[in-house]
Amino acid sequence: MGASNLEPDLEAGQQTSILKQSSHPVCLIFHFLFRTAAICIYFFGTWVTSNFVLIFVLCVLMLVFDFWTVKNISGRLLVGLRWWSENKEDGTTTWLFESRDPTRPLNAVDSRLFWTGLYVAPAVWIFFGIICILTFKLQWLLIVAVALALNFANVIGYTQCDKDAKQKWATGFASNMLGGSAASGVVGGLMSRGISRLASSIY
């Protein structure tokens, strides 16, 4: 009896894994997969080979895969945001943003891990860049430069996209409130007129 009573309590006390809490576990894995692979190849690549060109190519491939995945898939699924840019005929670039319906709630785990991965990766590459400068391994700065360019493109894109989404939601909320107030005023006016007419007919 005692053991059977304890089993539900133990099961209830077990913490659910992050992947089980996620609404898009596969997407969450790929959000970290390519950027982690690039960092590991950069850091541990010399343990396997002394060929810098091979390490450079593998790192750049992982970084490109990561950039595309974060920009087009994980951002849309994990936080409901998407950004892209278009080049106009006059040579200027226009940033375009998409955002989710604010009435659709986000998964807190997905959102937290998305933004954590987005901001931590550039910080790691900045650290690697400082180490390269201090140790005079300037050729490795080529990999760091590519990594920072691609990572910061997503950081800037999603930061601006998030600000744009919040502005749209705030504007929409204000419009709804004003619309509701106007509708209330119209309804109130009609009711007042109706009551006045009724009173005049009685008296």
UniProtKB/TrEMBL annotation:
Record membrane topology: Multi-pass membrane protein
Chief site of localization: Golgi
Record GO biological process: protein secretion; vesicle-mediated transport
GO CC terms: Golgi membrane
Annotated keywords: Golgi apparatus, Membrane, Transmembrane, Transmembrane helix
Pfam families documented for this protein: DUF846
Cellular localisation: Golgi apparatus membrane; Membrane
Entry's transmembrane regions: 26-45, 51-70, 113-136, 142-159
Task performed by this protein: Golgi membrane protein involved in vesicular trafficking.
Family recorded in the similarity comment: Belongs to the TVP23 family.
Protein name, entry field: Golgi apparatus membrane protein TVP23
